[in-house]
């Protein structure tokens, strides 16, 4: 049996807007974005996890090491915290973004943690998951509420919980694991702490201090959650950041040196030869060529 959304305007809108829980700025919840012209957007260090629901039109998205991926209406993808995001939205397109730190419900968080073994067997490739029933009418109702000015904290909290409820009821575990892969771990709170803070500190000792954990406990948990030592992981993130910068059109070696905190061009040259087996100039050529063929 098909259902039809009966459209009507929000009643008593002034009472709704004057509610002390009305959200003028969305910190955790949903935000509708509609693009009247070709629009570029960029964020260098995402402060939240963003789940993007593409409602209409086509989008070109670059996120960390994944460049110029094309997404269409009916796709959804996760942008994890601390990511570097660039995108182009075509004229007439729209998307709904869900901003969140961790799932509000402990049950939802535990379910995601339980998928860590499945994630171990997935090669993550920033591929979208399709929006299908019953998320389709859920997003229609949510979009309609937002367009009509219903934006209190109650709505955002309720709808986020409903989203996770529908997701775990009508999507396969493999799909959920693939969608949330970047943030899933055996200790999701610890993983989220690391992702939220590692770019704010200069070294591992400062990160340990922020965690309020003992050194041995911190290193043990880090190994368990990330599958490598903290030193190896930080080095991997730095190398990935270098590769991302080298892929950018018109990249300047001097800017990379300054942004990533190298003391001199000589030190950067030695670093590239040690970790990438080539000079910075050769690395730029390699990354630019790989980006053109991806």
TrEMBL record:
Q: Which SUPFAM superfamilies does the record match to this protein? A: Homeodomain-like
Q: Please verify whether the record's keywords include Thylakoid.
A: no
Q: Name one GO molecular function term.
A: sequence-specific DNA binding
- Cleavable signal peptide: none
Q: Which UniProt keywords apply?
A: DNA-binding, Transcription, Transcription regulation
Q: Name one Pfam family in it.
A: HTH_18
What InterPro entries does this protein map onto?
A: Homeodomain-like_sf, HTH_AraC
Where does the HTH araC/xylS-type domain start and stop, copy by copy?
Answer: 188-286
Record-linked PANTHER family:
ARAC-FAMILY TRANSCRIPTIONAL REGULATOR, REGULATORY PROTEIN POCR
What is this protein's record name?
Answer: Helix-turn-helix transcriptional regulator
């Amino acid at each position: 049996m098909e259902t039809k959304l009966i459209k009507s305007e929000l009643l008593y809108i002034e009472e709704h807007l004057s509610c002390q829980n009305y959200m003028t700025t969305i910190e955790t919840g949903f935000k509708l974005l509609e693009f009247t012209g070709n629009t570029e957007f960029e964020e260098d260090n995402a402060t939240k996890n963003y789940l993007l629901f593409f409602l209409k039109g086509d989008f070109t998205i670059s996120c960390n090491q994944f460049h110029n991926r094309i997404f269409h209406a009916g796709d959804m993808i996760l942008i994890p915290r601390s990511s570097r995001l660039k995108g182009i939205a075509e004229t007439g397109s729209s998307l709904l973004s869900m901003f969140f730190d961790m799932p509000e419900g402990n049950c939802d968080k535990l379910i995601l943690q339980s998928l860590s073994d499945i994630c171990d067997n997935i090669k993550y490739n920033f591929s979208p998951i399709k929006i299908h029933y019953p998320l389709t009418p859920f997003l229609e109702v949510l979009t309609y509420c937002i367009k009509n000015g219903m934006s209190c904290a109650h709505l955002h909290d309720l709808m986020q919980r409903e989203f996770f409820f529908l997701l775990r009821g009508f999507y396969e575990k493999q799909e959920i694991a693939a969608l949330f892969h970047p943030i899933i771990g055996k200790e999701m709170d610890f993983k989220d702490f690391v992702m939220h803070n590692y770019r704010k500190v200069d070294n591992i000792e400062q990160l340990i201090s922020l965690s309020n954990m003992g050194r041995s406990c911190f290193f043990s948990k880090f190994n368990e959650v990330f599958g490598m030592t903290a030193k190896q992981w930080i080095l991997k993130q730095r190398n990935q950041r270098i590769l991302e910068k080298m892929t950018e059109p018109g990249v300047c070696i001097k800017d990379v040196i300054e942004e990533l905190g190298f003391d001199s061009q000589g030190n950067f040259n030695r670093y590239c030869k040690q970790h990438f087996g080539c000079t910075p100039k050769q690395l730029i050529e390699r990354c630019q060529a790989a980006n053109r063929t991806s």
